[in-house]
Amino acid sequence: MNEQILFAKIQEAIADILDLDADEIKMESKLINDLGAESIDMLDIASELEKIVNQEVNLAQLRAALPNNRPMIVGDLVNFLKSL
């Protein structure tokens, strides 16, 4: 699956979970700071990511891959799913 398709699917999933307009969600959007996601929302997002790639998604692995514990952005999700 290419990056644009992954982004569109992730964008739609996040919009549904966080009750946002998909146009508000950009690759550089910070999930917590910009989009207002909370810890419980991250579990829902992980569940939706699993449906997109049809395999288990480990958020701990994703967080560990982030440089210097910076805030997670939507692009991180795209890149992580591409690496699976």
Helical proportion, percent range: 55-70%
Give the mean pLDDT. Answer: 93
Shape: globular
Low-confidence stretches: none
CATH superfamily: ACP-like
Q: If classified by CATH, what would the architecture be?
A: Orthogonal Bundle
The value of Rg in angstroms is 11 Å
Give the class-level CATH name.
Answer: Mainly Alpha
Beta fraction of the residues? Answer: under 5%
Report how far the terminal alpha carbons are from each other.
11 Å
CATH fold title: Non-ribosomal Peptide Synthetase Peptidyl Carrier Protein, Chain A
With helices defined by DSSP (H or I, 4 residues minimum), what is the helix count? 4
**SSE series:** HHHH
Number of strands: 0
